[in-house]
Amino acid sequence: MNKFETELKNGNFIVSECIDCKQIIWPTSDFCNICHNTTKWRNTNNLGIIIEFSKKNDEFFGLIEVEQNLRVMGKIVTDKIPEINQKVILKECSFNKTPKFIFKTITN
Ligand SMILES: [Zn+2]
Known about the structure:
By secondary structure, the protein is mainly β. It has 1 helix and 8 strands.
């Protein structure tokens, strides 16, 4: 497992951010793919928005955008049918062969 996967397994969603141009490098890397400087690792703010979602059995899954333009697939925990552009917060993350994310909708 790489650093990203190990941290994810421990419940920390971390990203690599370029120390110079401040781009979030995704997939995570020790080097920036734009200016080739090194990156630093930091926690995400755990907030995201729903880009798209679908329902499978009684559960919702969706594409969630976090940080600037980083998109991950995850389960969406909600009381109601989610909406596109609705805000979500990361509730849980893990790693077992693939990344696992569980987001919860934030109602205003
Ligand atoms: Zn850079």
